[in-house]
Design goal:
It contains 15 helices and 14 strands. The chain is α/β, with parallel strands linked by helices.
């Protein structure tokens, strides 16, 4: 089977990139041909035989290039032309879309359909939703200026995006986000996609608010490979790993650190709140870690904390902690409760509730027997491997072509 994976970034940048690289690698191991389409970039690590990519779009550029972006992020003729070159050269059976709004634009959906019709070839379009972009222009269902959770755009009322300045607190960018949402809703563009994969039931419920999407949605949780058993002994610290930002609940966690000066906290990651973390005397900032170094830090923690305050989808931090034998205290928000067992592999708390999180952390720190029980229970948790996930993916592909 020939599979074209579309994503705006073709270099390591975030969760969607980790996803496309891993499924692409696994599908190739299983004997399938995989190529990629997205933006050209000096850090690009995957590509296509036609060597056809869209130009890198940096929204911080100045000059004439920046003035043209408002037109290009809604509809890109160049992206249509470039993906046509790849389609002609590769002739895929499946086009698997990921993050493509703004930099690549939904214009490519029209080109895929036009190309298939011209050749009389059935080409299926699958989309993995990594965020809420198709029902929320700022993709996070949160008003950035005040951190308030929001679904005011439900029912395609995208004008709320402008009212709340939801995209980078910018009137112009929010207007463009509204325009893109309204345009493709009016044109019913996303109805041309055959199937939408949601990595959580929560995301499926939110996307199903659009009747055009509702009948195309399935839930398929993310995968996590564990290559070996990790037998590191536990050490005396509580761990947070991930981005240091407000929507991740890090401000809430910093306040908890201050209230529990007797507990050592370790932070692995980076982000805008780094300086505030470093000001806490009982907090150690390790910086961004990955690979074996990160696994070791996770394994050795007494427990980890996932304090997110936005609608997390299917966070790897929740999956990795449990799979590496580390209990978690996590926000009961978004898709998080679907990934853990409250009172078995850890505990849930109300997102943003400093008092409740403080109580949970203090209780689990003092009660070593309970923490050890959660640790043992974590060893019984498993998620799909990339092989198991791709077998399910292939079954989906085959049903569509």
């Amino acid at each position: 089977m020939k599979i074209l994976i579309v994503n705006k970034f073709l270099y390591p940048n975030g969760g969607s990139e980790t996803y496309i690289f891993e499924i692409g690698k696994q599908l190739q191991k299983m004997g399938h041909e995989v190529q990629y389409f997205g933006m050209e970039h000096e850090g690009r690590i995957v590509g296509n035989h036609a060597e056809s990519y869209t130009p890198d779009m940096n929204f911080h550029d100045g000059g004439l290039k920046k003035l043209l972006y408002p037109f290009r992020i809604i509809y890109s003729k160049k992206a249509r032309n470039k993906i046509r070159e790849v389609l002609d050269d590769f002739t895929p059976d499946i086009v698997h879309l990921n993050n493509f709004n703004f930099q690549i634009t939904p214009s490519v959906i029209y080109e895929i359909r036009k190309w298939g019709k011209k050749l009389g070839k059935k080409v299926a379009i699958v989309y993995t939703a990594h965020d809420y972009q198709w029902v929320c222009p700022n993709h996070m269902m949160m008003i950035p200026s005040n951190g308030e959770l929001c679904f005011q755009c439900k029912g395609a009322y995208f004008g709320k995006c402008v009212k709340n300045r939801c995209i980078h607190n910018s009137l112009m960018r929010s207007f463009l986000g509204m325009a893109e949402g309204k345009l493709y809703h009016y044109l019913k563009t996303y109805d041309k996609v055959d199937l939408i994969i949601c990595p959580s039931q929560f995301m499926k419920e939110k996307l199903s608010s659009n009747p055009l999407l509702a009948r195309k949605l399935i839930t398929l949780y993310n995968f996590l490979d564990q290559k070996e058993d990790y037998n590191y002994g536990k050490k005396e610290y509580v761990l947070y790993f991930g981005r240091y930002s407000e929507e991740k609940g890090v401000k809430t966690l910093i306040e908890v650190c201050k209230r529990l000066p007797h507990i050592p906290f370790v932070f692995a990651g980076n982000g805008p709140l780094k300086d505030e973390i470093e000001e806490c005397p009982n907090a150690t900032h390790l910086g961004f870690l990955q690979g074996e170094e990160l696994r070791k830090i996770i394994c050795e923690a007494r427990f980890s904390i996932v304090p997110s305050q936005w609608y997390e989808n299917c966070p790897f931090s929740v999956m990795e902690s449990q799979q590496y034998g580390t209990p978690i205290i996590a926000s009961a928000i978004g898709g998080i409760p679907e990934l853990m067992h409250d009172g078995i592999t850890g505990e849930l708390f109300e997102a943003g509730n400093v008092e409740q999180l403080t109580e949970k952390v203090d209780k689990l720190w003092k009660n070593r027997n309970l923490c050890d029980t959660y640790t043992q229970n974590c060893h019984n948790i498993r998620f799909d491997t990339s092989l198991e996930y791709c077998n399910k993916l292939l079954a989906i592909y085959r049903d569509l072509i």
